[in-house]
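Lab notebook, bench 4. We co-purified these components, and the gel suggests they stay together. Before we commit to crystallization screens, I want a quick structural picture of the whole thing.
Request: model the full complex, all chains together.
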Amino acid sequence: MTRTDRHREKLIFGGGLTARIAFASATAILALGSTAAHAAGDVKAGGDAFATECAECHSLKQGKNKKGPSMFAVLGRKAASIEDFKYSEAMKSSGIVWTADQIDAYITLPKKAVPGGTMKFDGIADAKERADLIEYLSTVK
Amino acid sequence: MISIRFFRGFSAVLGLAGALLAATPAHAVPSFARQTGQECAACHIGAYGPQLTPYGTRFKIGGYTDSDGKSGKVPVSGMVVASFTHTAKDQPEKPADGYSKNDNFALDEASLFLAGKLADNIGSFVQLTYDGIGKSTALDQMDFRFARATEFQDKELTFGLSLNNNPGVQDPWNTMPVWGFPYVGTALGYGGPDAATLINGGLEQRVLGLSAYAFYDKSWYAELGTYRSLSTWSQGKIGLDKAEDPGKLHSGSAYWRLAYMQDLKSSAWSVGLFGLHADVQPDRHSGPSNSYNDMGVDAQYQFLGTREHIFTVQSSFIRERQGRDALFANEEATHSVGYLNEFKLNTSYNFRQTWGATLGYFSTIGSSDELVYADNIRQRPNTQGETLQLDWTPFGKEDSWGAPWANVRLGAQYTHFAKYNGASNNYDGTGRNASNNDTLFLFAWTTF
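Here is the predicted assembly.
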């Protein structure tokens, strides 16, 4: 989430817990909508991309964290929200909600998307491969 | 890892190994998996060590310290190897006390490891092994590491130190002898060439070395180190047989390594150079020394894909120049200079990180010498052959039973010798042929 996004959140919902829940729900809906916008991805190819690029460090099982957190139902999830996973401070303070666009930006250049993050991954340059991967992740829920 | 280690003793430092071999497994221990939260397959081809994936290579370079960030991990693992060995023809003598000339079942060894993160930047891979053949316990492979990651010109730079007891044990690729195929070998048959270069186990566990290394941009690797020999008193204290002391290393021994790797995720490759120079004085009190200059080149390719089908090729070539001043002075060599060349080419296929097949070709060729190779009718060490291994590794994946606490590999390994100790036929003058040493080795190898 960018500074502008956070400012917009504050303007619309204020800072209270209820407001945050409402914002999270709305964001999740937007995330799903955003996923639909990325529906051009190929799920099969995305599964292969996950196995090649991600599976060493990320599980698809709910509650199963490896070196990286579980990717189960990641779309719509707030960053750094899995309680028993140790995130970097940068990720905790990022305010990101994992919409398809945010995932796309993150896996393009992780260190640019979250400076100070600890994920040891250079990113995926191929836009089609990223779209496939996001499409595949949208099915894991 | 399990790697064939030869009983070399004194003769090892001449480039000769004992006729029979001892297995000394190591590497790929579940405490690493528990520490990182990842399965064995993340770091190892075929979900079992020691063959490393690019991720496993970086884990080792990182000092065995990478983790999932959670505390309370105990860096301790265990390993047991049991086997059956059959040779094509009975061996001339019993391979070890308590065993027959052929068809031997054995508990090869049991090991305890201190393997994993000890502090933020310090990790270890230390193995204490009970040798079930020799009925003794000793310190086996040891590699304490300090590693620290930083950035240089916006690229990742890892630099570190390794305190170890075997030149090459610290190497993060599987092309050098210490961690090369075959990863487990028979102690009661014939697993490979009789003669070996110094870097191929001639000093293992008898020395202590310190090396510094740097790994830049996840590709460039450079390392430089030096070794000192342990005193015979120290060797005895860590459980080694003092009678097999190779001698005293003079100061100035050098180990070096240069390599370049590319991790393309669906594939990876590396090329490298390495070397070891050591002057070894067999008589620790006085007398001349033998000088060894080993230089090697290596390369490997891994097709990793989605990890369902994995294909690898590894190759290495080592040329050793032996300055045999001590041997010559003691009338144990007719030539004051000799050469030994070792070539290996291995290829493997693994299906679903479970079913594996590896075919390896080995060739050791050396210059002739009437005294150094007095037992060989051609007075040469030349040995050539192939090793085929089929194995099954049912666990070690994310959904495996017992993960990340248990893993096991069951395998069948067959080694064929086209030439042994200089000849295909009657290599020792008693009528024994190279193919008589063909060895079937069935093994069960478990780690926990």
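The radius of gyration of chain B is 21 Å. Worth comparing against the SEC data before the next meeting. Residues 1-13, 15-23 of chain B have pLDDT under 50 and may be disordered.
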